[in-house]
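call fold(seq) -> tokens
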Amino acid sequence: ARRGATRCGGVCEPPAFGTTSRRRPDVPRSDGRVAPFGRERGAMPSGIEEVSDRSNSLTGVMSPVASGPFDTRAVWQLTSMSVGAGIFTIPRVFVVLGTTHAAIWVVFMGALANLAMQRLLDAAEMYNLSSYEALSERAFGPIGKLLMATITFVATFIATLSYANTAKTLLLNTIVAFLMNIDVNAEPISLLGQGKTFVVLALMVGMMLPSVAKPTMGSNTWISQLGVVTVFTAAAFFIGHCSIVLASKNGHMRPLPSFTFQPGDVLDNVATLAFSYSMVFAVFPVLQERCARAPLSVVVPTIRRPVSISVGVSCGMYLIVGLTGAYTYGADTAAFGLENLPLTEPLTQLITLMVGISVQLLVAIVVFPTVQSVLFLLNATCGIESTGRLRNFIVLLLGALIMVIDTFLAPKVAFALCGSLGLSLGAYVMPCVIFISLAHAMTDVGLRVTKTRRFLTGVVLLFGLLLLFCSTPVAIMRAATPAVGPAPKTLREVVCANFADPVMELELNNCRSDLDTILMQLAQCQSELVERKHPQKPKPPTNGMAVLEQLPPLQQPVLSAALPQDVTIPQSARLSTQRAAVPPPPRTPTDPPALSEEW
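ret:
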């Protein structure tokens, strides 16, 4: 651009960064390839890599280089990183926020995620760097790598907590439903106490430790592929089941509001949606895989359209799953959509078991970057070299933290907390900050960044900061707030209620009534014994008529004729007369045996 301006006498304006300028005669490169005139390697100062004339780096418009065979594998890889178990949390978001409100957020956040990834690709193409950490270091120096390692640790560790808790819940529900034929999803049931939950988590964490203790995960790539296939299959089954339920109701959908606005609910559920746009962490692995066959300046333009299509596919799946689940179950929609399916059906048990197993296997994949980040931070801050013993110790420590947090704390907000704290930084804030920081260097070499691009980058950055500083406190407060509502039933209560015999239940109720009668008679006998041991001396009556008023009706005619008006009956004689006057009640076969007076 400077050479062109010099030829024109300084009149020509340097082209904007990412726009296509008039082609000049090509010159051969040192490696035998042909490069545009004035864009040979080394022509840019400060080690900045050239920007290809054949691509529009900012708008993502495809160039002749990228117009070849479409890279469907890149779309699959990016989408598989985004669409995970968190897709089944979206129906509840549509219920809480309203259908239209939630749909707007899904599309809006997808557009912002696409803009953030396009800005990362701009910086990667400009500096010929194919890793997130390298770009951070180029933008902020050594502190940039530390910052990215910290973000990776936070995001992956919270995601590990959510995945471990989800796998534990799905596997336990499926086992109980299969063995006891109990629909665990029909009502809240507490399957295990805290002690047994800790033991189950210890077994699950123990199964993943050997895989995480390895220095690489190259031999476990099949786990990611299995997880993607399983989640897509479960999502298709969930949509099909909801469609069948709606068809059986003649298309009658649950009434739902289209728009609700409660600030706390909005911040919490938007953070949950942010968890679903994590494909930014797959952009650079996709670039590195293709850079082995072609230069980065050629690969980046071919990745731009797959990034946009992946975001579009993810948004479409989120909208379909969210709307069908919300309209099918309405206010009864569970926090995890699969928990609304009837778990007594064999096909539902199979799908739930598949998702539970795949999520359990994915725990090892998700926690692996956590271990790597801890090792890097220890080396960078304390100078501790990574060894096998240190790695095993960190793996054991992380496993213990997962067991304690998922057992005694509230893992229900793990998805929201991961979105507000991890994805807000990794998917929205850092890409924009890196681009803004490197945009000054782009301007120094004559490449102009347009105001529109700066404005859109600022919008994405503002949204990421809103998630970080507003949604995170809300998620933490809701994690500390105890759950409201009736306490869930225990598994013992549900089993007794399902397997009780009606005849035995009737006999048990009769025995309970007989026992109550016996207890009442025992209480009467006890009170009589107390009266005999400590009799209360009433005020003696003044005349015989007062004594007659205290006698039973059957004895009054007999004594009234012979008793003078001034005769006073002793207290002991009066009590014995009363006992003799009262006939004992007739016994029936169902009455308990009579009790003796002495007893």
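Residues 549 and 582 are 15 Å apart (CA to CA).
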